[in-house]
Amino acid sequence: MFDLQGALADISVQLDEAMHELLPNPGNVSNKVISIASRETSDDVTECHSGENKVVDAMRYSALSGGKRLRPFLTVECAGLFGVSPQAAMTTAAAIEFIHTYSLIHDDLPAMDNDDFRRGQPSCHKKFGEAAAILAGDGLLTFAFEVLAHRKVHADASVRCELIRTIAKAAGVFGMVGGQMMDLDAEHKAMEAEEIIRLQRLKTGEMFAVSCEAGAILGKAPEQMRNSLRRYAHDMGLAFQITDDLLDVEGTREKTGKTVGKDQTAGKATLVAVLGVERAREQSKTLAEQAKQHLACFDKKANTLRVLADYVVSRRS
Amino acid sequence: MFDLQGALADISVQLDEAMHELLPNPGNVSNKVISIASRETSDDVTECHSGENKVVDAMRYSALSGGKRLRPFLTVECAGLFGVSPQAAMTTAAAIEFIHTYSLIHDDLPAMDNDDFRRGQPSCHKKFGEAAAILAGDGLLTFAFEVLAHRKVHADASVRCELIRTIAKAAGVFGMVGGQMMDLDAEHKAMEAEEIIRLQRLKTGEMFAVSCEAGAILGKAPEQMRNSLRRYAHDMGLAFQITDDLLDVEGTREKTGKTVGKDQTAGKATLVAVLGVERAREQSKTLAEQAKQHLACFDKKANTLRVLADYVVSRRS
User: A199, B90, B143, B281: least surrounded by Cβ within 10 Å?
Assistant: First the structure.
């Protein structure tokens, strides 16, 4: 039987290495100043204290703090369907994970979801303060695009531009950012199931979709396959989100690594609240099956993606 | 005599038009949901309330609220030195202004500089709330890269990637984001003049520099000219910043459109505080002269940039 947990763990290790290499390092921060008198060449420098180390520390703290690494896994798996080089796939995956990490840092802020824990440790603003957390999020988001524009992502610059546009759209106001705003507005508000689905599609679905799509873009895959992977991701992503909401109702902080019962306390409209636990669980299973059907055009190379669809609805954390 | 104010006003109008066109419009937000039953095609949609309108409104409110538009002006002027098409220059300028706007929104947040006014009107979080302001900043930053990756910026994708990398670096942890962290750390802390110069170089200098450099990148200019424009921008930017600090000491809110006397209240280390008003003013004039010297390799087409260097140190708001 295929060991999905092992495969996820492998990707996590490789991703951590890639992110560790890519991210700015406090040791590498150039603690240099240029005097007024001799600012014409950048060689005339002297050492001084450097405040941006704090942002770099905060960026690394949050990015390298573990997590399921589902999005990078999707990118690497989908890139593998089209024979993309592992380095290109992993660099792209790291950029996507930087964007995911920034969103978690900002979502945890007091003005947003106000969460003190993330991945089993203090959230970024609890550890470094609010200002550093806001800036660390900004820094990670900015850095993701710096990475994506780099040659090592793909030799063809038009592929890199396509990646950047597609990822920016998914992360932006018609994707993750818009979804987070809807989510905050959803507190103490009655919502229909369809509205909640749209919310989830924006908040998490688009980033899941682009994580898969990125592999297809890197591999210059035909439009039809790219769309199949998007649909797989959207169904799988919604199944994942419903499971998250179920764990929020039924889980414990020890298992999930974050505060539980928050949705109910905040009066948030979730599919679990609207459909009830049993119907929500059934729905997540239906979605996982539907997700797998979108993979019909792929051969057994997509088996891991099929196993993953089953995993996201059966997981306990 | 050359009418710089008129030229700045012209660019402002054109920039507003470009940003208005580029930015998401609440009317264009797709208020659509996809039902669980028929999620396989994106045609099966129904209308519903859409929460992301609020983020779009906040993005437009801050981006289209006026300002000096110095950075876009620099991009357009520098692009003009190399015969770049006005549309390409203006689209790039708009993207840079989106990044500048996001930084103002986040800098004004209570956890950062805590400023209630910006450009003579309530700052973004005072108008839309903190959560929407954080997300509007995130949305603008993300959107800037979506715009920069678009074909209309340049037909050559490698030029677009070079722009994205250079702008992301200037906006990131070794540029604007790092400078803002240093600035927050600088409150109630003694700093030497050279440390303050490094802080300003990161906080505002790198974005000024990349605003000029973007014109050179679009025009595939020789490395030497690109560097000359960077140096011009750094000297001019520092002169600009010293003038800002002088206005904070001597100006009024009516004239500057923002809260004044804040640096002193916050105990911030500025060159004005370290050097005193008179020496700081002299220094700003020296920097403006130095900035103009970097333009020696350009003919009279760079005259506007020369006039601008004089303007930034003589302005009253």
Answer: B281
Question: Does A149 contact chain B (CB < 8 Å)?
Answer: yes
- From residue A201, alpha-carbon distances to A107, A233, A249, A283, B36 in Å are 17, 10, 21, 15, 11
Residues 6+ apart with CB under 8 A from A113: A107, A184, A262
Does any CB of chain B come closer than 8 Å to the CB of residue A96?
no
Q: How many residues are listed for chain B in this entry? A: 317
Q: Which residue has the tokens 């890139």?
A: A79
Residue A187's pLDDT is 75
Residue B71 contacts residue B11 (beta carbons within 8 Å): no
Instruction: Tell me the backbone φ, ψ of residue A32, rounded to 5 degrees.
Output: -120, 145
Do B138 and A177 count as a contact with CB atoms less than 8 A apart?
Answer: yes
Question: Given a cut of 90, is residue A125 above it in pLDDT?
Answer: yes
β-bridge mates for residue A118, sequence order: A121
Token pair recorded at residue B250: 């001597």
pLDDT of B317 reads: 77
pLDDT of A6 > 80? The answer is yes
Are the beta carbons of B55 and A178 separated by less than 8 Å? yes
pTM of the model: 0.91
Handedness of CA A103, A104, A107, A109 (dihedral sign): negative
Q: ipTM higher than 0.85?
A: yes
Helix (H) or strand (E) holding B291: helix B277-293
Chain B residue numbers with beta carbons less than 8 Å from the beta carbon of A197 are 33-36
User: In sequence order, what are the beta bridge partners of B46?
Assistant: B33
Instruction: Tell me which residue range forms the domain holding B129.
Output: 4-314
B131 neighbourhood in chain A, CB within 8 Å: 111-112, 181, 184
pLDDT surpasses 90 at A264: no
- Residue A230 sits in a domain of what CATH number? 1.10.600.10
The number of C-beta contacts closer than 8 angstroms across A and B is: 238
A228 and chain B: CB distance < 8 Å anywhere? no
* Cβ–Cβ gap A24/B149 under 8 Å: no
pLDDT in tens, A40-61: 344 333 333 356 789 999 999 9
B179 part of contact set with chain A, CB < 8 Å: yes
> Number of folded domains in chain A?
1
Q: How far apart are CA A150 and CA A157, in angstroms?
A: 9
**pLDDT < 50: residue spans in chain B:** 31-49
Quote the crossing angle between the two packed helices A157-171 and B130-148, to the nearest 10°.
160
For residue B45, the model assigns a pLDDT of: 36
Residue A200 token pair: 């989830």
- Chain A residue with CA closest to B294: the answer is A40
For residues B140 and B59, is the Cβ–Cβ distance under 8 A?
yes
- Looking at residue B43, its pLDDT comes to 37
The larger pLDDT score, comparing residue A93 to residue A268, is at: A93
